Structures are given as C-alpha cells and as structure tokens.
Amino acid sequence: MCGFVGYVNQSDVPSDTIVKMANRIRHRGPDDEAYFNDDKVTMGFRRLSIIDLAHGKQPMYNQDQTKVLTFNGEIYNYQDIRKELQNLGYQFRTDVDSEVLIHGYDAWGPDLLQHLRGMFAFAIYDSKTGEVFGARDHFGIKPLYYYDDGQTFLWASEIKAFLEHPNFKKEFNEDLLAIHLSFEFIPSKDTMFKNVFKLLPGHYFIHKADGHTETHEYYKFNYDNIDPNQTIEGDAKKIRKLVDESVDAHMIADVEVGSFLSSGIDSSYVLNEAAKLKPIQSFSLGFNHSKYSELSWSTEFAKEIKQDNTPITMTGDDYFDILPTIMYYMDEPLSNPSAMQLYYLSKGTRKHVKVALSGEGADEFFGGYNTYLEAKPFETYQKYVPKFVRKGLAKAVVNLPRFHGRRFLVRGAQPLSERYYRVNYVFDYHDRERILKNPDLNRDAGEYTKHIFDDVKGKDEMTQMQYFDINTWLPYDILHKADRMSMCNSLEVRTPLVDKEVAKFAATMPIKTRIRGTETKVSLRTAAMAELPEKIAKKEKLGFPSPIASWIKQDKYRKRIEEAFTSDVAKKFFNTDALLDILQEHINGKSSMQKIFTIYTFILWYEVYFPEDTTADTIKKVHRTDIDKIPVAN
User: Fold this and answer.
1) Inter-residue contact 482 to 496 (CB < 8 Å)
2) Which UniProt keyword terms apply here (predicted)?
3) How far apart are CA 7 and CA 207, in angstroms?
4) What whole-number distance in Å separates Cα of residue 603 and Cα of residue 605?
C-alpha cells in the first residue's frame, strides 16, 4: 500500500515540486520514497512495505526501461499472472505484485485490467509514446485523481498533493454544493475542486502526448445474469466457499495482518475465516460508559473463537477535536459520522499491525440495508393504484401535519430515482432552498443521478437500490472513508467482501435469496450461521453507532457548532438563521443530526482548504489539530 504523484513537465515548475507533492501524502507510504523524471514527465512514490519488503521499490521499470510504474494497492492473483507472463518470456527480478503490472501492461496494454483481481490504482508512463496510463480498481477501493485544466496535467493518490504544484489553481466548485448537501459526497467524476476529477471505479485514463485525456470503462457491475432458480441454501453454500477463498487471498503479506471487529455479522465472519488460517489479532472501537459501545460484543466473540481482541475507546473531546484534521485527510468534505471512529480505530490498530481486514461491502452486495425492505410495498402500491390517484393523494397530504402513512403516500407518487432516500440522503430540495444563501445553486439531486437508475431500468426496485448503492454509496462514502482514515495512519485496510469474484456471484442472486420477509442478506446470514454463534449471525445491523446526536446537545459541543454556523464561511454560503434553527430543532428533540453534521463538516473542510476566507480565530483552531501543515492559498 502506497501513494504516488506525477505531472507532465512544464518549464516553470521547480525541480523540488515532486518531492513536496509526495511529502503531502507521506502518510500513505512512510517506509520509502523514490522519484523519476525525464524531459516529458515527473513521477514520485511513497511506499508502505507489505510484500517483499526489500525489493519492492518504485518507480518500477519494464525490461527495456521504456515504461515506468507507480502503484498503490494489492493484486491478489499476482502469482497466477506472473506465471502467465513468464510463459510469454518475461523475467522477474522481485516477488512483488507491482512487477506483474509493468510487465502485464507491456504485454497486453489496457487489457491487463481484465486479468487483475485486487484493489489498485496505478500510473504507467510510456517514454516511447509520451502517454500516461492510469487505472483504478473495479469498485473504487483505492483512489486516483487527476487535474486537467487544458494546460496542466497532474495525477495523485490524494487531491492534497496538487496543492504543492505551482500551476494548480485551487478553486472551490460551488456549483456542486447542493449535490454535496444531498448525498454528503459527489456521486460522479467531479469533485469539490474545479478541474480535479476522480478516476471512476472500473475505469482507466490515457493522457496523450498532445495533451488530450481520454477515459474508458473496463468493468461495470451488472445484474444481467440473475438466476431465479437459486435457493437460499444453495447460495449460502456458494458464499461460504467464496468468502473462505477471498479471505485466504487477502491474507497474503510479509507483515502481520490484523482485523477490525464490530459486533456485527460482516466483520465477525471475516475474522472467523481469517482465524482458521492463523492466529489473528482483532481491534474494536467503543465509548466509555456508553450505550453505543459494542466492545462487550466484540470482546466476547473474539474470546469465543480463541483470538486476541484489543479494545480502543474515544470520548466526545476526541471526536470533535479531530474533525478539522479528518476533513484535511478526506480531501473532500464527507459527513459520515463513523469516519471519526474509523480514524481512532485505525490509529490504535496501526500500533500493532500494518494490515487489517474489514467487512465493508456485504450490505451492498448481499442486500443488508433495511431500506431495501421498502421496495416490495412501494412496488405493490404503484402496481395496483393508478398514477393519477397516487399523485392526487400525495398532493392532498403533503402539507398536512405528520401522521402515520403520510410519508409513504407522498413518496408513492415519485419514481424510484427521486424517492430512494439515498438521493436526498441529508437535505432534500426544499431543505436546500431554506438554507442556501444563493438559491441559484440549488439543483435536482434526482436528475443528477437518474442515469444510474436508467442502467437497471426494468429490474425490480430492490435490485435498482442495490445497484445505486454499489455505484455511489459504496465507492464515494464507505470505501472513501475506509481508505482515508486508515491510510492517514499508514495502515492498509483490505476488504475481502468487496471482491471481483464475490461480486460476480452476488450479481446472480435473485431477491428471494437476498431478503426473506423482514430478514436482510438472508443467504449471507445462513452462510454465517454455519460458522458463527447464532446470536452474532442474526444480530440486527447497527452500522457504526456513535453518541454524536447526544453530544451535540451538550453545551461545549453545541457552542462549537454555533460558532461555525455564524462564521464567515457560513455567511458566505448559507442563511445562518436557518442553520441555527436546525440546531435548535435538534436540541428540542427533533433529530437533525445528519443535517447539522453535514453543514458543520463542510464549514470545517472549507476553513482547512480555503483559509483565505476564514478569520484569524478559525485558523488558530485549525492549527490545534495534528495536521503537519495547513494548506495555503495559491
């Protein structure tokens, strides 16, 4: 696991720029650094040594030294690819997975990507053609960004590296503010920085010698092969085999591997399978004297399977004090409250191991979210009640005081692309209209992501929901925070359930093997029942619970939020009276925690990345964090 940076050369760029860019992300690779440059391209690399510790240095070259690689991630089937390339005549100097990429690209070009199983982002420069090739794994586990304004082309594992390049124009992408307020992330290639783009999961780019950049899709998850004849028992048997094999592949390392452990089925199942291979230390996070703490569950489970568990705790002060630092490491604002827990869990885990397994992906692929249970009632309602009746009922009740069933009637008149709660996960159109200072910034979030639902038009609603989550929530929220919060602590997190082969099978599962009655991810639970204690396999999903909703009501934390809600940044973008009203609503018992947290974290992020717009007091607060260096305005 590593980090890399690079740029196409320009005459006015100082020679030490590449080192400064790489140092910005040295948390991704504290073990080693190296650089490459010629008259066209400059590349930098920071290494976190996991496999073949002595010989995995990058940048890495092909046999005739005409191609140069920098790579972040793990290729779990690299040994099979290595044999295939050896049969083609390629000679290997190391035992690292990186080398199969540089030789594989030399042999197959972009078709190399069809051979890979793993989590990866990499860039390859071809000195013969002057082209830069960049690729990202199937589901977006590892990040890759590029900056392209028509004159300057940069790429890096994290956006913050671009801050050190003199020709990077740091501009806030204000047009996307409403989209961020809807989703808590940007569900597209765009970012909150103008001309900075994510390379999408399952995509690659080619930056041509003439300055033109192309992007291409090489993989797309789909539900084209659903098999209605599959059964829960049969699918559970296949899942057991797949999880066992995937965990085995994800354990490859020349350093000790640990595992995250919550009280839920996903991380428990992963840990249990890993423990069959060799003893493995687990790590769990909780809160002292809090009903939100799951430490008793995780400690008991680890003890039951005879593995060591290390509990890690955090307080409200820990949580709020680290927020500016978290926003720095995130690159873009992300208001998922569990990110702070993941930061402290990773920080504690890194004291013991360099690699940790985690259970992300099970809910998206196997149908684990309770919201998927809504699909059947809405489908039935829309099938038997004419559209004009549904619209009339929605119009009649929308302005009435709340009553049981009102929300169902209002949403029942909407297509899934507008109704699915992820589309307006935090603020809906009317909420944004209330808080945005510039009403012209408000946008239709449903229209922004409708094309994703169009991809699975004609499928049942639950399948459409899962497809949407796999293409938005999973890469832009779940995997994004997992990468940033682990890598800022120089910890590699591996996700055996977010895997090419696991996903290939999950795409064949009919609804009846995903949910049964009110039971979610029923086939995965059935598989786990054969391996885990019943109370774990059947435990209700809690996510990553935290007491933040109650903390916000405490004076010392509420005052911090009030200060942010009346700051210069807040006044720049929002109607501050409306923000304070939302805060007061929460204090009075109407839960608005996610709304509060989304605005609060956005303000903190903006203060960190655009400090020219902040007061001296705010800058001082940001400097109290453990960020090595606050970004300055260009």
Assistant:
1) no
2) Amino-acid biosynthesis, Asparagine biosynthesis, ATP-binding, Glutamine amidotransferase, Ligase, Nucleotide-binding
3) 11
4) 5
Q: What is the arrangement of strands in the sheet containing 282-287, beginning at the earlier edge strand?
A: 309-314, 282-287, 257-260, 355-357, 492-494
Cα distance between residue 422 and residue 465, in whole Å = 9
Are 402 and 449 within 8 A, CB to CB? Answer: no
359 is in an annotated binding site: yes
Per the CB < 8 A criterion, the answer to whether 149 and 169 are in contact is yes
Q: Is the CB of residue 21 less than 8 Å from the CB of residue 162?
A: yes
**CB neighbour class for 207 (10 Å; exposed up to 12, middle 13-18, buried from 19):** buried
Active site residue 488: no
Is 348 labeled as ligand-binding? no
Cβ 265 vs Cβ 62: under 8 Å? no
Tokens of 312: 């890690």
Token pair 């709660």 is found at 421
Read off the pLDDT of each residue in 534-561 and give the average, rounded to a whole number: 78
Neighbour-count burial of 619, counting CB atoms closer than 10 A to its CB (0-12 exposed, 13-18 middle, 19+ buried): middle
5-37 pLDDT, tens per residue?
999 999 999 999 999 999 999 999 988 899 999
Whether residue 630 has pLDDT greater than 50: no
* pLDDT value at residue 287: 85
**Domains, the chain, ordered by start:** 2-217 (3.60.20.10), 232-368+471-538 (3.40.50.620), 382-461 (no CATH), 547-627 (no CATH)
Taking only the tens place, the pLDDT of each residue in 318-361 is 999 999 999 999 999 999 999 999 999 999 999 999 999 999 99
For 169, the token pair is 């124009």
Residue 556 exposed, middle or buried by CB count within 10 Å (0-12, 13-18, 19+):
exposed
Q: Tally the residues of the chain.
A: 634
- The annotation status of 335 as a binding-site residue, yes or no, is no
Q: Which tokens sit at 470?
A: 């796999």
Catalytic residue among 2, 265, 452, 561: 2
Is 528 within 8 Å of 244 (Cβ atoms)? Answer: no
